[in-house]
Amino acid sequence: MDIQIISFIETVGWLKIVSLPLIAAFIGWATNWLAVQLTFYPLQFQGVGGWLGWQGVIPRKAEKMAEICVDRTVARFGDLHDVFIKLEPERITAQILSQVLPRIEEYVDEVMYEHHAVLWDNLPYLAKRKIYDWSRQQIPRRIEALVAEFGDELNDLVDLKALFSQELRAHPELMVRIFKEAGAGEFSFIVKSGLLFGLLFGVVQIPVWYYNQSFQLLPLFGFIVGFATNWLALNFIFRPLNPRYLLGFRIQGLFLKRQAEVSEVWSRIIAEELITVEKVAQSMVFGKHAHRTRAIIQKHMRPLIDESTILRTLTQVAIGASGYAELKKTLHEKAIEVSTKPFHDQQFNKGRAPVVAQVMAERMKALRPAEFQDVLRPGFQEEEWQLMLIGGVIGALTGVVQWLFVF
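RESULT FIELD:
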């Protein structure tokens, strides 16, 4: 046997034998690296005819992942009113007033000039002053009551799934960023592990090549290495599902082992980018349940005119009942127009984001391993076989090149 091995080495050559595990290691590394890239990129479909091409798995499945995320985490907030209370409604009220009160005269002028410019131009300044002062006195308690009712009705006014889907449809890079930051260590492991797994497969290839040096073995092994290294890496990330102990060491899927850390990162990015106060306000005013939001705004803004004796008397006498009704409609529209402007303040949004992130992270950390995995994996699990198959095909092609240039 020793003579046969020596003869085999002399026939094939040391360099060619050593190249088997080295090239297998390269195949493992390259195919795993490619699998990670294909998971994230390209953000938009690149190809011909809408069917021959590729779009990153995560951008393509972003909306589905968003729905799963809402079901598994955000929906577990329970009553959104509880989250609203933690956001401190008085701060939300103060933010609105800080933007509205300094411009109260401008807003009143806009409302009056839109339909009743002649009346407003001819009104004595003293009368205007009383209307400005009345509005300035009434606005704070109206806004406070409005914010409180929004908090009570938040569950029915905000469709979180629709909000997530809309944002991720417009910005697929957000889900890519979430996964890249939350799973940086795991995706790095996928790439590096390909090198080790490929090397091990290459070592196994040496005795097989010793007994059978046919051409078909190289692309076959290349396919196995490319496919299997991807499969192994993915399973090391998500398996075993529950912690197991071997010789005192805790063994669990890498993503699952880092549940607390991943939850923090995942929740922070979603709170900063997706569930901001600004975007929730936009969803309330312009989203699926906008008609209910607008009805609440109208309910709280209408008394501004009805309870202002001077304004009600002037308008009814000067322009009649129909003009008075038109004025109230204009006020309502102006209130809707300015309702989301105070939340464009990035500093305010940034200051409220940690509150949402904390609530969401607490829910994610409390998930059982199977539930936590369901937040991260199902959206692209059905695509994993494609990534492994692509890795196998590239491995097979590398095996052909190996035969042509080495053997």
